[in-house]
Amino acid sequence: MISSELLEKYGALKKSFQKNEPIFEEGNLPTHYYQIISGEIKMSNYNDDGREFIQGIFYKNQSFGEPPLFLNQRYPANAIAVEESTILALNKPSFTKLLEENPAISIQIIENLAQRLYYKSIMSAEISTHDPEHRVLKLIDYGILYFNFPKDNNGYLIHFTRQQIGDLTGLRVETVIRAIKNLEKKGELKIINRKVYR
C-alpha cells in the first residue's frame, strides 16, 4: 500500500504484537493509521452468544481500521494479531498531512476502501441468498483475487482456516468442512495434506 519509507518519513513507528494480542478494541476511538509489515491481523466482534464474526483478515502491506479513523467514529470491531505480527502505526495528524501532500496515495486509499466495500456487498448477498458451497467458493475466489494467495503446481493455496471461512461466511465449521469436501468431489477444490487448493 503506502511504502514503509514514506510512512516512516512522516513519523510512523514499528510495533510488534504477539499472537492473540489486540491492536485496538471495539468501542475505542481511532488515533492511528495501521499497516502490516509482517504477520496477519483479523478484525472481528462477537454476538450475544459469544460467537465470533470476522469482519476482515489482513496481511503484509495491507492497512486496516481506516473508516473509523476518517469518520472519527469508534471502532466497530476488535483488531487482533492472528500470529506474531509487526505493523507501522502513524498518528492521525501525520497521516492526514501525508495524504494532503501525496494525492496519489489518497487515490490508492480510496481504491482500497472501495474494494473492501465491494467485498462486503458481495458477501452480504452471498450470506443471505446462497447455499454453503457457493458461499465458500465465492469467499475463496475473492481471497485469491484480493489477498494474492500463492500459486504452485496444485493451484492456489488458500490461507484461510476452516474456522476463518466459517467466521467470514456465517457458517458453522462443520458445515464448512462438508462444503469443502463436496467441492473437492466436484473438482472445484483440492485437499492435499489437509491444505485447500483452488
Automatic annotation (TrEMBL):
The family database entries (InterPro entries) matched by this protein are listed as: cNMP-bd_dom (IPR000595), cNMP-bd_dom_sf (IPR018490), Env_Response_Regulators (IPR050397), HTH_CRP (IPR012318), RmlC-like_jellyroll (IPR014710), WH_DNA-bd_sf (IPR036390)
Q: Which SMART domains match?
A: cNMP
Among Pfam families, the record links this protein to: cNMP_binding (PF00027)
**CDD domains xrefs:** CAP_ED
Give GO terms: molecular function aspect only.
DNA binding; DNA-binding transcription factor activity
A GO CC annotation recorded here is: cytosol
Under which name does UniProt file this protein? CRP-like cAMP-binding protein
Kindly state which keywords UniProt assigns to this record, in alphabetical order.
DNA-binding, Transcription, Transcription regulation
Residues in domain Cyclic nucleotide-binding? 1-116
Q: Which residues form the HTH crp-type domain?
A: 130-198
Q: Does the keyword Glycoprotein apply?
A: no
